[in-house]
Automatic annotation (TrEMBL):
Binding residues for NAD(+): 77-90, 290-302
Protein name: 3-isopropylmalate dehydrogenase
Major subcellular location class: cytoplasm
PROSITE patterns linked to this entry: IDH_IMDH (PS00470)
Positions that bind Mg(2+): D226, D250, D254
Residue ranges of domain Isopropylmalate dehydrogenase-like in the record: 5-361
Catalysis performed (reactions): (2R,3S)-3-isopropylmalate + NAD(+) = 4-methyl-2-oxopentanoate + CO2 + NADH
UniProt cofactor note: Binds 1 Mg(2+) or Mn(2+) ion per subunit.
Keywords: Amino-acid biosynthesis, Branched-chain amino acid biosynthesis, Cytoplasm, Leucine biosynthesis, Magnesium, Manganese, Metal-binding, NAD, Oxidoreductase
Site, as annotated: Important for catalysis: Y142, K193
Subcellular localization, as worded in the UniProt entry: Cytoplasm
Organism annotation: Aestuariivirga litoralis
Taxonomic lineage from the root: Bacteria, Pseudomonadati, Pseudomonadota, Alphaproteobacteria, Hyphomicrobiales
Length: 369
């Protein structure tokens, strides 16, 4: 049986609460002998800042680098609003993405049948929804230089963020999107703003070239990112794979989350390039949501996004795709039974805490063993 090193970074707020439910599932896999997972834990975000003044320590970065997969909870919160910009909690996550080279962020938005009425949109708009946002994760305005605030000396300041993309960055994320589309409904929608941004012009040109040269059999359409946001709430089922830059991908994936019923439902996988020798990719798995300071400590957090992120790790990094499918089935079964944390309970009262939801999913998974 293959052995894998998992590095857990629970983080802040609800991060550790939802991670606990994944830890229970990992422990069960080990106890049943389905897999051998070596688990180590580290600090990231505000909890790391409190411990040693950095958003992630060098030692924990080294462990993340050496792991087969990083499982990440969430970071941030009002407690750290005033800490210096370079060591704010979110800097830990951004460093992990950049230093591990995790350029491809997959954010699937699936509306489970039992949740078709949990979205703020009408049932017919979201029922059967299955779209995948492929977000470029190591470039764009998140990392471009200069990134500064300058005092102009006349009572005015100037803030600058810089959107930068180079050919190779667009080529590789386009290939990820086209390859995934071939395993799905064979359609890619590329979202940019070529009408306003030079990077949008370049993005459009390169996606068009990669499509013509390497993926002529995949359907490609170009959509302006603002229109894409509108289309996502108008008729999201027109989409299969959406490929987009770092910032548009951040915003569009929060929009897509609500189509599934709650931000607490959306998982993600962040993948690096395959290693030339082993073919293995560096990887990090995290829910799309944040630390939810408004509900932290109340037991109201929905652990499904975190659990489904672990499911993506089983599929993409741990060679257990069949168990990833079973975990999805277990989630669907629990939702079909009407078990609901507050965020997906609609007008009904919630009938499950974070721990009860996690336990119910593990219970269903056990039945599939
Ligand atoms: P958020 O995602 O933390 O919360 C937005 C809303 O969704 C809140 O009302 C919250 O209660 C709800 N929500 C989120 N996850 C939920 C879950 N699992 N179950 C039930 N409800 C859930 O976004 P925010 O409030 O804008 O940000 C809070 C902090 O989190 C900020 O510091 C932000 O930078 C950080 N953040 C971190 C990540 C990350 O670690 N990947 C992602 C987004 C935001
Ligand atoms: C996300 C988050 C992060 C982002 C923050 C916490 C750095 O919002 O993963 O969606 O903006 O990428
Ligand atoms: Mn986000």
């Amino acid at each position: 049986m293959a052995s894998y090193n998992l590095f857990l970074l629970p983080g802040d707020g609800i991060g550790p609460e939802v991670m606990k439910e994944v830890e229970a599932i990992i422990a069960w896999f080990n106890a049943e002998g389905i897999a051998r997972f070596e688990v180590d834990r580290g600090l990231v975000g505000g909890s790391a800042y409190d411990a040693h003044g950095q958003a992630i320590s060098e030692a924990d970065m080294a462990k993340a680098m050496a792991s087969d997969a990083v499982l990440f909870g969430a970071v941030g919160g009002p407690k750290w609003d005033k800490v210096p910009y370079d060591v704010r909690p979110e800097a830990g996550l951004l460093r992990l993405r950049k230093d591990l080279g995790l350029f491809a962020n997959l954010r699937p938005a699936i509306c489970y049948p039992a949740l078709a009425d949990a979205s703020s949109l009408k049932r017919e708009v979201v029922e059967g929804l299955d779209i995948l946002i492929v977000r470029e994760l190591t470039g764009g305005v998140y990392f471009g230089e200069p990134k500064t605030i300058t005092d102009l000396g006349n009572g005015q300041k100037r803030g600058i963020d810089t959107q930068v993309y180079e050919t190779y960055e667009i080529e590789r994320i386009a290939r990820v999107a086209f390859d995934l589309a071939k395993t799905r409904r064979n359609k890619v929608s590329s979202a940019e703003k070529r009408n306003v941004m030079k990077t949008g012009v370049l993005w459009n040109e390169i996606v068009t070239r990669i499509h013509a040269a390497e993926y002529p059999g995949v359907q490609l359409e170009h959509v302006l990112a603002d229109n894409c946001a509108m289309q996502l709430v108008r008729w999201p089922k027109q989409y299969d794979v959406i490929v987009t830059d770092n910032l548009f991908g951040d915003v569009l994936s929060d929009v897509a989350a609500m189509l599934t019923g709650s931000l607490g439902m959306l998982p993600s996988a962040s993948l690096g390039a395959p290693d030339a020798k082993t073919g293995r990719r560096k990887s990090l798995y995290e829910p799309v949501h944040g630390s939810a300071p408004d509900i932290a400590g109340t037991g109201a957090a929905n652990p499904i996004a975190m659990i489904a992120s672990f499911g993506m790790a089983l599929r993409y990094s741990l060679g257990l795709g069949d168990w990833a499918d079973k975990l999805d089935q277990a989630i669907a079964a629990v939702l079909a039974q009407g078990i609901r944390t507050k965020d997906i309970a609609g007008s009904q009262p919630a009938n499950a805490t974070t721990t009860q939801m996690g336990a119910a999913i593990l219970g269903e998974l056990k039945k599939l063993a």
